[in-house]
User: Fold this.
Amino acid sequence: MKRHGRGAPQGRHGRPGKTADTSQCSKGLVVATHGRHVVVEDEEGERLICHPRGKKSEAVVGDRVLWQHTLDGGDEGVIVAVEERKSLLYRQDEWRSKSFAANLDQLLMWIAVEPVFSESQLTRALIAAESAGIPATIVLNKIDLPGAPAAKERLAPYRAMGYRVVELSLKQETEAAREQVGPLLDGKATLVLGPSGAGKSTLINTLLPNARAETQEISQALNSGKHTTTSSLWYWLDESRTSAVIDSPGFQEFGMHHIPPTELARWMPDIAKHMNDCRFHNCTHRQEPGCAVQAAVERGEVSPIRLSLYTALYEELSQPRW
Ligand SMILES: Nc1nc2c(ncn2[C@@H]2O[C@H](COP(=O)(O)OP(=O)(O)OP(=O)(O)O)[C@@H](O)[C@H]2O)c(=O)[nH]1
Ligand SMILES: [Mg+2]
Ligand SMILES: [Zn+2]
Assistant:
């Protein structure tokens, strides 16, 4: 089919532009992003800076791409195409309007006794993972600190709704922590996600002592603001490159606007469990009579905090967007 006006771009002097010739391309994996450019690892494991060729070739960490060397013979490359993604995670924080990771096998929701974790953030991240089809495990770090019993208690509902919850201390029980986390990571690409200061980069250094990921002690010494890690970075755990962990910057907020409010309950396992028993099939579980979710809260089977988080998110996602 012939399309008008959207074919190969014409050069400024009327020369026909090049169409993507992928026969000259190499395969690669995006292991980091820095603003507009990305770092691509080639099939030999070498890393080089690449630039997107156009909007369609904008890539995120975890993307499989086709790239080629820039024509000037330098040591940088151009991304020609991004392969189809098997999953995509959408993230939003106060620094960047959005950032993504692609093709993840699982998420470690990395939270800590201190800074005291926000249940709202945790819930939002779990919803984002559920709706993207990415399994999530919750890890509570710093159980050496006095707030540990209260933090564990706050996670009880998440355990009850089916999430695996791992409790550890990277600092005090380093070897035990390594043994708890290591097997979870085998053969997978795992994104470590959680608030700033929870110990995500400390995990990287615990697993890979040569990684030297920057942690808070160092950034405090340099006085460089609240977030220590400022962009996501992919680390291989084994020489055969089958298991990977991705360190990420501390999140503030999850953008969820791709989720319609009426779908929210589906992605919250404790609420989803009861929603088919509501009197009305289109019950929103807020004030309808005969709501099985409300009844489950009254019986103590669903945490009232979870229902209020649900209600607040429902309102937020129902706001008209410009
Ligand atoms: N008490 C205690 N402190 C820990 C533990 N694990 C990590 N920390 C400390 O927590 C602080 C924050 O650790 P980081 O690894 O920099 O945290 P992060 O999650 O990477 O933070 P961002 O990069 O800002 O997102 C550091 O001072 C660590 O030494 C732990 O198990 N117990
Ligand atoms: Mg960090
Ligand atoms: Zn209901």
Q: What stands out?
A: Residues 87 and 194 are 19 Å apart (CA to CA). The first helix runs from residue 119 to 132. The mean pLDDT is 87.
